[in-house]
Amino acid sequence: MQTISKTLKIFLIALILSNIVLMACATYFYLNNKQNLNAERIDIKDRSGKNRIVIANTDNIPQPIINGKTYKRAYSPAGLIFFDKNGDERGGFAITDNEETNLNALAFDYQNADAIGILAQDNKHDNYFRAGLLINDKDLSGKPGHNINRINLLTENGNASLVMKDNNEVPRIVLKVDSLGNPSIEMYDHNGKVKWKQ
């Protein structure tokens, strides 16, 4: 009896261990297959069938839609595009890689144009680079794609600056630390001429 019981215990332990190994292998293959999902475009839609998020490569990125009308995109990036409940573009994340430059951007939009943008750019054939934050006013004329650039916080070729502009996009105050570490403050009139500099 004691021998049968030991044999049965060993058999049950081996069965349990083999089931654990089998489940671990099945879980690994299931998760591994999910992580290797291949697609050129993924559309996430709402109940009405409108796109709310699109993830796509450069060949399949959707054109911008503003007030239901489709416009041509300046560049064809790979990325992720957000849409509002009407199907209009409201921002996204774009990675552009062409013959001249690498440009990565994250944007959040007003109803008709960019509101806030975060970017990183470096050119391929020269040493130009920049990275920063751009903040725009809404252009109340309603022209699609138009906005008023008001604040730029950038580093550009080693020069760090905060530029504040008026509603005509004329720089009025510029705080800067150049590539050599020299700080400056500049104020301009409405024509862009220097009024004061320190």
UniProtKB/TrEMBL annotation:
Which regions span the lipid bilayer? Answer: 12-31
Alphabetically ordered keywords of this record: Membrane, Transmembrane, Transmembrane helix
Q: What is this protein called?
A: Lipoprotein
Taxonomic source organism: Sphingobacterium athyrii
